[in-house]
Amino acid sequence: MTNTEPEARNPKPLARRVPILFSVLALLASLAVPSFAVFTKIGMAGLPFLKIGVGRCAGMGGAFVAVADDATAAFWNPAGLALLQKRSAVVNHIDWVADINHEYLSIVMPTKVGNFGVSVTALSLGGFEETTVDTFQGTGRTFTGSDLAAGVSYARMFTDKLCFGLTAKVVSEQVWDVGAAGAAFDFGVHYNTGWRNLRLAMAIVNFGPDLKYSGGLLDFTHEPGWSWPWSREPIPGTYLTETFPLPVTFRFGVAYDFFRNDNSYLTAAADLNHFNDVNEKVNVGFEYNHRPVSLRAGYILNTDFNYARDVGWTTGLSAGAGFRFTPVAGLGLNFDYNYRDLGRLGGSHRVTLSLDF
After folding, report:
1. Which among 16, 66, 166, 229 has the fewest CB atoms less than 10 Å away?
2. Which burial class, exposed, middle or buried, applies to 269 when counting CB atoms under 10 A from its CB (0-12, 13-18, 19+)?
3. Structural domain that includes position 50
4. Which parts pass through the membrane (predicted)?
């Protein structure tokens, strides 16, 4: 993990600072007023794997857009990559629902002109047995499905407190020989107020053109029949598919250090997430670090109370822990385990290994 900007040596009087924090929290709360929605947007976007959170912040309820201080910032807020002062790499494995496995890799390289990064997300859906109307117990053939996203990121500090970042990526989904592919972009801004490391940030991710499925299984042959004395040849055709949008997400977040010194810190973070295909969610999390150990806890609140009640209020609880090694001078190795409650779908185990050098 990297060190963030320390508290200013000559802070302004506390009386002037506290209203700033309360104003930010009041704004976040007003934007996230729980609702009893009548209209649901569920299922209106494709490639949902792009919304599965990665990294140590999974134990913080996914509240990370304003923290964004490791290589997983390429996923949460590309502006955070500018905060890294060392070369960093992260490998993340998620044991998702059923037999679905999610893998993530990110590498960041600081340079004099800004920080560059590459990231890859891969999801495997496992194997499926083919069934048809006539052979509903299975034809004996199997097929698989997979998702992939690969991106290149760039981030730069514009001042000692403000940074900006962007990611360009290709995304694809393949089920048997039917698939869709396209491009998407992420944009982010990160601002450190300088008081108790209070940070404000926002990001728009998965912004791109609509996609459309195509593939050999959409082809068919129409038998027009015949009547004497004429006969007709079979007519080839292809099923038309509708376009669908990517899961565009707008994130606004705040992070605050209750205390921070050379050996320990306690950070609180809160994010408001606006999706184009599901209800808004508020992510809240805490991280306590006393080197070399880190402890995390968080919660994801769905702002539709009816939905939250139906799936169970414990859905969205998360927790995690980490340990940092220093095998040799200048080399840092972090191992993190995080758990998230998925309600009726069970729990999700996540393991993260990160390296800075």
Report:
1. 229
2. buried
3. 14-132+141-356
4. 20-39
Q: Encoding tokens for residue 71?
A: 């290589």
Could you give phi then psi for residue 59, rounded to 5 degrees? -80, -10
With vertex at residue 117, the alpha carbon angle to CA 114 and CA 123, rounded to the nearest 5 degrees, is 160
Q: Which residues have CB under 8 Å from 262's CB, separation 6+? A: none
Environment class of 333 (CB within 10 Å of its CB; exposed 0-12, middle 13-18, buried 19+): middle
- pLDDT 10s digits, 84-116: 999 999 999 999 888 899 999 999 999 999 999
3-state secondary structure (DSSP) of residue 71: coil
2 assigned to some structural domain: no
Mean predicted confidence (pLDDT) in 300-317:
86
15 burial via Cβ count (<10 Å: 0-12, 13-18, 19+): exposed
Name the domain count of the chain.
Answer: 1
Is pLDDT at 1 greater than 80 in this prediction? no
Question: Distances in Å between the alpha carbon of 15 and those of 9, 19, 212?
Answer: 17, 7, 55
Span 140-180, pLDDT tens digits:
888 899 999 999 999 999 999 999 999 999 999 999 889 99
Residue 126 lies in a domain: yes
CATH number reported for the structural domain that contains residue 224 in this entry:
2.40.160.60
How far apart CA 260 and CA 109 sit, in angstroms, is 26
Selection from 271, 8, 5 nearest residue 161 by Cα: 5
Q: ω into residue 224 within 30 of 0, thus cis? A: no
Phi, psi of 284 (to 5 degrees): -130, 135
Would you call 179 exposed, middle or buried from its count of C-beta atoms within 10 A (0-12, 13-18, 19+)?
A: middle
**What is the average pLDDT across 124-145?**
85
Q: Is residue 163 part of a domain?
A: yes
Closest by CA position to 73, among listed 110, 113, 119: 119
